[in-house]
Amino acid sequence: MTEKKTAEVIVIGAGHNGLACAAYLARAGRDVLVLEASDGVGGAAAMRSFADGFRVSGCAHLLYQLQPEVAGELELARFGLEMAVADAATTALSPDGHHVRMRGADLEGRVTERDRAGLRDFRERMQRFAKLLRPYLNRRPPLLVNSDTADKLTLGRLGLDIRRLGRREMQEFLRLIAINIYDVLNEHFDTELVQGALALDGVLGTHLGPRSPNSLLTYIHRLTGEIDGNPGAIALPKGGMGSVGEAFAGAARAAGVDIRCDAPVRRIRVDNGRVVGVELEDGETIDALTVVSSADPKTTVLELLGARHVETGFTRRIRNLRMRGNAAKLHLALDGLPEFAGVDPSALDGRLVIAPDMDYVERAFNPAKYGQWSAEPVIEITVLSVGDPSLAPPGKHVLSAVVQYAPYRLDGGWDERQSGVFRDLVIDTIAAYAPGLRDRIVAAELLSPADIERLYRMGGGHWHHGELALDQFLFTRPVPGAAQYALPVEGLYLCGAGAHPGGSITGAAGRNAAAEILKREGRS
Amino acid sequence: MSARGVSERVLRTHFHTRTAAANHRNAWQDWKGYTTAAEYTAADLEYFAVRNAAGVFDLCPMTKYRITGPEALPYLDRLVTRDMTKLKPGRVAYAVWCNDAGKVIDDGTIFHLREGEYRLCSQERHLEWLLDAADGFEVAVAEETAEVAALALQGPTSCAVLKEMGLTDVEQLKPFGLTRFHFEGTELTVSRTGFTGDLGYELWIDPDHAEILWDRLFLAGKYRGIRAIGSEALELCRIEAGFIQAGVDFLPADEIVRPGRARSPFELGLDWLVDFTKPNFNGRRALAAELRRGSTWRLVKLDIEGNKPAHHSYIYDSRKKQAGFVTSAAWSPVAKANIALASVRRPAGEPGGRLFAEIYYQREMHWSRKMAAASVVEKPFWDPPRRRQTPPADY
Fold this sequence. Notes:
The complex is a heterodimer. By secondary structure, chain A is of the alpha+beta class. Chain A has helices spanning 16-27, 68-73, 113-137, 149-164, 167-176, 181-188, 192-203, 215-222, 242-254, 297-305, 312-319, 358-365, 384-387, 416-431, 437-440, 449-456, 508-520, and strands at residues 9-12, 32-35, 47-51, 54-57, 83-85, 90-92, 100-103, 106-109, 226-227, 230-231, 236-237, 258-260, 265-271, 274-280, 285-287, 290-293, 327-334, 351-354, 378-383, 397-404, 441-447, 492-494. In chain A, strand 1, helix 1 and strand 2 (32-35) form a beta-alpha-beta unit. Chain A is globular. Chain B is α+β, with helices and mostly antiparallel strands. Chain B has helices at residues 16-22, 43-52, 72-79, 127-133, 158-164, 210-220, 231-241, 284-293; strands spanning 11-12, 27-31, 34-39, 54-58, 63-68, 91-98, 104-114, 117-122, 140-143, 149-154, 178-183, 186-191, 200-205, 226-228, 297-304, 314-316, 322-332, 337-345, 354-363, 366-377.
C-alpha cells in the first residue's frame, strides 16, 4: 500500500486530543492524516502489557474529566466506550484500619457530623464553581490584550457568570480561586483522613503540595467533567483507559481520518515563514499546509519546529514553561486479589488512596522540591481487574498506582537502580496496608517521569503537558502568544493538553483547537 | 557617552595609565563601571581635533560579544532586522535588534571578522537576550568586552596617522571594511568605522599591546594634530552626524516598564535596516503589523533658529499643540547651526516641515523662554565627502 504523501491537515500524535481534533476537522470536510510515533492509538491512555496477560495504561488509569460535549458529539459510546465502573468510590486508607469511604458527597466511616455536612457543602460549592468554569473550558480562551469581539464577549460573559453566583458566592469564588486547598479543607473538616484524601485530588499529577497556591483550582478542574450525566464522577472504562483512545480513534476513522502508527515525526517543515508539512524519522516527507500538534508545547516548538522559526521572546516563554512531572506509575501483576486490612474486597473496584492527612501529603512534597522522592509517598491505587477482569489472566489481578512525589529531575537521575529502589519503597508503602501483597507479586514495573517522557514523548514526563496553575491557565496557557491554539508560524497549531483547558482525558483541547482552525482557515 | 546612575567607577580600561596621564582636567565619568574621561583638557579643543585633525577615544568599555559557530550567520540573521547574509567577511554592518513586539532593544555594529566569526558591539549589555536567542542554534556567544582593547581614531588626518604608524595600504580600506596588520609582534585589527560621521577608524588589539598602541599612535600623530578626546566631544560629534544613542534617543525596550515608551526601528528613522524578505527575525510580525497600521512616533533632525541649544525642549507642531520632545541637542560649530534630535508624534515631523521648540535658557541667574522655529531636515548636519572617499585625501 502506498502511503499518503500529502494531506490538507496533519495531526501529530494519536492521543485522545489529537484524535478528537482530527475527527472534528474531518467532519468539517478536511482531509486529515494523523501521524503517531508509537504502534497504537491512545497516547498516554494506551494500554501497556508489562507482564504476560496483564494490561494497564501507562499514565492515567481513571476517567473523570471527559467533557460530555465531546463524548456526545463524537458518539464515543457508539465506538465502544463503556464504563466498567461508572461512579467509583474512594477509600482513604488509615494506618489504624479505620478507613473512610467517599463517593461523590457521601461519606462512610469513623467521621464526625461536621465532616459529613462539610463534604456536602464543599462538594456542592466546588461543583458550582466547576459548572461555572466548564463552558469556558470548552471554547477558545479569550485574550486580555489584542482581544477581538468574540474574546470581549467571552470575558464579559465570564464576568457576568461570576456576578450571577450572587454576592456571597461570588466573594467565595474570588477568595477561593487562587487559594490553597489546605486552608479550605481545614475550614470544612475535622477528620484528617478525609482532608488527606481530598487534598490528594488537588495535587495529583502536579508539582504542588496542599499548601501551594491554587491547589484548590486544580481540584475544581477535576470536577469539570461528567460521566453518564454524573458530574465530577470517577470512572473505570471497560477494557481500561485504552478503550477511550480506541473510541476516539473509531470516531476519527468513521469521519474519514487516516491514522498512521509507527510514523514518528522528526520535524515540522517550514518554508518562507509558513508550515508546509512534516518530515518523519525515516526521512519521508509529507506535505500539508496545516499541521496540528498534540505534542506538548516545548516538544512542538523547540524540537519539532525549531526555535529559529519563531522569535526569541516566544521561545523564552516556552522554555520557561513549568512542566516537570512529579508522578511515577507502579504496575503490579498479582497472582490473586490483594488483601487490604480492613477493606472489604467489594470496595476494590474503586480507588484506594494513601494520604492519611494533609501534613503527610505536604511532607511528601517537601523533598520533591529538592530533587528527591518522597520517603513516604502519596499513592492512588486501583485494582483494575476487579472492575474489568479482562485486564488480567483469569483469577489474577493487576494493580496500578499513581505515586507522588517522584521528581523528574531526580538527584543523580532516574536509572534502573534508582527506579528499583523507589519501586521497592512504594511496594513497601502499599504493603503496610496490604500485608500479604509482596507474596502475590508476579511482576512489577515502575515508570519514572523519565520513563514516561520517553514512552509518551511528554517533555518532563508531565502528564498535563505543563502545570495547571493560574499563570498557565486560560489566556496564558501554555504561554501568551499561543493561547488560542495558533502558534506564531502560519499553519501551525497546538491541540494537546499543553493548550487550554489543560490535561486529563477531556477531549476539550482537541475540540477547541479544531473549532479555532476552522474559524481561522475560513471554511467550516 | 551616557553616564546613567551613580558613578561606580571600579574598572579601569587597558589604556588607563595613558588616559590618566593625559587627563589634565581630572574629569572622569562612569561608563558601564569603567573610569573614562569626560574631557582631557577642554572639550571644544577635543571636538575640533576630530573635525580638523585627529581625535583618539578610548572605546574599551563598549560592550563586545564574540559570536562563533557553524550557525553564527542564521543566528544573527534571526536576531537583527537587517539581512546579514549580505555581510561578507571583512565587513561591518550597523544593525538594530528588537524584541517580539518590534521595539528596539539596542543598536550596534556587527563585525564579520572571519568566515563564520562575528563581533557584536553595543552600548548596553545583552548577554541574557543573546543567549536566549541562541536557543536552537549551533552557536557560541561570549562576552569579550574586557578581552579586547579598542581605540577610535577619528578625523581628517586619521588615515595619514595610521600610515605614519606603518600601516601600509590602510588608505585602501573602504568605509565599513576591516583589515589586519602585524603590529609589535601581534595582530592589530583596523576597521573604518566610528561614531563621529567623519573619516575615521577603530583599532582593536589584545590588551597586552594596548599601551604600546597608544604610544605609537601619538608618536605618529605628533605633527597631525592628534589629541585624546573625552565623551563630551564625542557626544557633540555624534549628534552632528545624526547618530542615535541608546539610553538617550531611545530606551532599550527590555528596560522599559511603561507602555508606549519603547520605539520601533520605523520610529527611529531606521526603516532601511528592516528587511521583510527574511521569513523570520525577532520583531518581524509586530513590525509587519506596524507597517500596515502606521507608526506612532518619528525621530527627526531639527535645525532650530537662534543659538540656544534646545536641551530637553518640548516640540510643538503649532504654537499650541505639543508634538514631542528633544532627545539630543547642541550648537554645532561645524554646521554653524542649532541642531537637535527629537521624538515627535506622527503626523508631525514630515521632512521639510516646520515645528517649534520651547527653549528655556538662563542669563545671569534669570530664566528666559523662547519659542524657536525649527525645520525638519533629512540629511545629517555633518556629512563630509571624505567620510566615504577611498583612498582619503592626505590631510
